[in-house]
Amino acid sequence: MSRRTSGQIVAAIDIGTTKSACLIGQITDSGLKVIGVGQAPHKGVRQGLIVNIEGVSQAITKAKDEAELMAGEEIHSVWLGVSGSHIRSFSSDGMVAIKNKEVAENDVERVIEAACAVAIPSDRQVMHVVPNEYKIDDQKGIRDPIGMSGVRLEASVHIITASRSAVQNMMKCCESVGLKVEGLVLQQLASA
Questions:
Q1: Rounded CA gap, 21 and 81, in Å?
Q2: Helix, strand, coil % over all residues of the chain, rounded to 5
Q3: Which pTM does this prediction carry?
Q4: Phi and psi at residue 75, in whole multiples of 5°?
Q5: pLDDT band at 1 (very low <50, low <70, confident <90, very high)
Q6: Which of 14, 37, 59, 62 is an S-S bond match for 81, by CB 3.0 to 4.6 Å?
C-alpha cells in the first residue's frame, strides 16, 4: 500500500459469496476512521469465483452508493479484497551478499527479489510476498535486519498467489461500475 497522508479518503470492496460490501475510510493522525459502509446481496459468487458478472456489478453499485451516501464522499478507486478456493501459497528462500558489510534497504529488497525468483504458472499472479524471517550469516530469527552487520543475508518469505482469471473477473466487476482498482489485498490478511 502506498504512503497515505492525513485526511485522505480510501475505499475497499469485498466481494463475498452472498454479498458485496464497500467501506470508505478517512486517514487521520490516529489511524483509519470508517466514515461510510454499504452492502448489497447477490448470487454471483461461488467459492470465491465470479459466476455472474452482472449480478455482482449491480451489488457493488448498490454497496458503493450506500457507502458514499453515508460518508458524504464520492469514490473513484478502491482496494479489492480477494479470497476463495483459487488462492494458493508457498514458502521460498533467497540469499544475497550484503553490500558494504551493513544491511541497507536495498539489500532487503534484493534478498526478497531473490526469494521470489521461482517459477509461477502463467495462469496465476502474485498477490503478496510476506517476509517470515531474515538470517544474517548464522544468526536466525531476525525480523528487521536493516543496520545489522554481516556478510550474507537470507530471507524466508511466504508467497501468496491467486488465479489470474478470477482476479480479472473481480476487477472487471469493479471497473464496470466506474471504480479503478488501486490494489489487491488477501481478505485474511486484511482481517488480521
A1: 10
A2: 25, 45, 30
A3: 0.84
A4: -110, 150
A5: very low
A6: 14
